[in-house]
From TrEMBL:
UniProt keywords, alphabetically: DNA-binding
The UniProt record lists the keyword Magnesium: no
UniProt KW DNA-binding keyword: yes
PANTHER family linked to this entry: HTH-TYPE TRANSCRIPTIONAL REGULATOR XRE, TRACRIPTIONAL REGULATORY PROTEIN-RELATED-RELATED
Gene3D superfamilies, per database record: lambda repressor-like DNA-binding domains
Protein name: Helix-turn-helix transcriptional regulator
Limits of the HTH cro/C1-type domain: 20-74
InterPro entries: Cro/C1-type_HTH, Lambda_DNA-bd_dom_sf
Domain of life: Bacteria
Length: 137
């Protein structure tokens, strides 16, 4: 089925684009460096990352090869919510929050800390957001 030009990007295209962006930022690459490595313009990389343009299978293969990840990496975390037997329909995962350079760096650094210090940082962020401490660990 053909898509209408004015339609929003497909959720899968947005998700794959965000995963490309997250990995690129995690590797410390610019859009220009990635573009050069896979033979497209940096504007095309921007469109991939926004999900505006779909990444073709061959380009996804080249991107995965350059970034040293398997192709399924770009689809991890995406699931269409489907109710199971006897379950009510649930909302799909919210893909609207894209990672930033800072959030990726924070994530990478926090993972290296012991669990006790991770909990302290979590409490601090919740406090900064005005949310109370959560008893879940």
């Amino acid at each position: 089925m053909a898509r209408i030009k004015d339609e929003d990007p497909h959720p899968v295209d947005r998700h794959v684009g965000r995963r490309v962006q997250e990995k690129r930022l995690g590797l410390g690459l610019t859009q220009t460096a990635l573009a050069k490595a896979v033979g497209v313009s940096f504007q095309q990389v921007q469109k991939y990352e926004k999900g505006t343009n779909r990444v073709s299978a061959s380009k996804l293969f080249e991107i995965a090869d350059f970034m040293k990840v398997d192709i399924p990496f770009f689809f991890e975390g995406f699931a269409v919510a489907q109710p199971g037997f006897g379950e009510e329909e649930t909302a799909a995962f919210d893909h609207e929050r894209s990672a930033t350079k800072h959030s990726i760096e924070i994530d990478n650094l926090v993972r290296r800390l012991p669990a006790r210090k991770q909990k302290l940082i979590l409490d601090m962020v919740r406090e900064m957001l005005g949310e109370g401490p959560d008893s879940e660990d």
